[in-house]
Design brief:
Blueprint: H1 5-8, E1 34-38, E2 52-55, E3 58-61, E4 71-74, E5 80-87, H2 89-94, E6 97-106, E7 124-134, E8 141-151, E9 157-165, E10 172-175, E11 187-194, E12 199-204, E13 207-208, E14 214-215, E15 232-239, E16 249-257
Antiparallel strand pairs: 1-16, 2-5, 3-4, 4-16, 5-15, 6-11, 6-16, 7-8, 7-15, 8-9, 9-10, 11-12, 12-13, 12-14
Length: 273
């Protein structure tokens, strides 16, 4: 978990807020063969999909959905994990390269970090997608986090790719310079990791966030450590610093493939009576 606030604090917090919009021409790839797809529609409310294990207060809910009528809901907690984890043949089939896709949203107002006495700033670091694997550089166990975020006292949010070793070795991250905000509208998130070229890419609503990208090259593992194989992948919400009453969030339409997947159509909103 990220506790060294100075490592990720922006040089200037007064950057303009950016609202990402999906380009109209961006459509789901018809050629993408899905290795894992989960829309939560067949899972009873309060449970998690078959083949997943759970940690913390997480389960399928019918109070929000990007498509269909259900999604995965992460309930409020001061800190810790509310997530589901998948391992087995689908994760093994991804090998060293995959594209991931999901939609998420956050109940507003989102919790804000409290600046400790004697400090000038603070963050709440959260992870939404992560996987356990073996480091290609040090051969130790690591948690690779393709989708993480940090919220600052002013409500600004930055996305990050983060690797946390399971021993005493220091973690590292690459953080976007662009400031966004959590939203209670469904947001499309995509990521791409490739062991062969040590490449990482991150997309919001179809647009790549270029200052998060890593393109290290073959056998250039330092600062990326993208594994040749994931043991598992987890989806949900884990925040490491206290978050008051806690984040409430939803995830829907998770998909994994060897090709870019793109969006899936949303369920039209019911007409107002």
């Amino acid at each position: 978990m990220i506790m060294r606030y100075s490592l990720f604090l922006p040089i200037q917090l007064a950057l303009a807020s950016v609202l990402f919009a999906a380009p109209a021409a961006f459509a789901q790839s018809p050629s993408a063969k899905l290795i894992l797809s989960e829309d939560f529609e067949s899972t009873p409310v309060g449970e998690v999909p078959q083949g997943f294990t759970k940690a913390g207060k997480v389960g399928v809910a019918d109070d929000a959905a990007h498509s269909g009528k259900k999604s995965l809901k992460m309930e409020a907690a001061v800190n810790g994990a509310r997530r589901i984890t998948k391992q087995g043949p689908e994760i093994a089939a991804l090998g060293g390269e995959h594209w991931g896709r999901l939609y998420y949203k956050v109940k507003l107002p989102a919790p804000l970090p409290v600046v400790p006495d004697g400090k000038k700033s603070a963050v709440i670091h959260s992870t939404l997608v992560s996987g356990i694997a073996k480091s290609p550089l040090f051969n130790d166990m690591i948690e690779v986090r393709p989708f993480g975020s940090m919220i600052y006292p002013d409500g600004g949010v930055k996305y990050l790719y983060n690797v946390q070793p399971k021993n005493s070795r220091k973690e590292f991250a690459t953080v976007t310079k662009t400031i966004s905000h959590y939203t209670d509208e469904w947001t499309l998130v995509e990521w791409h990791v490739d062991y062969a070229t040590q490449t990482y890419q991150f997309f919001i609503n179809g647009e790549e966030i270029p200052d998060m990208a890593l393109h290290k090259g073959a056998d250039k593992f330092e600062g990326a450590e993208i594994p040749a194989l994931f043991d598992n992948l987890s989806f949900g919400w884990t925040n490491y610093q206290p978050a008051g009453e806690g984040f409430v969030s939803w995830i829907d339409d998770i998909a994994l493939s060897k090709e870019r997947i793109g969006p899936t159509p949303a369920t039209p909103a019911a007409p107002k009576k």
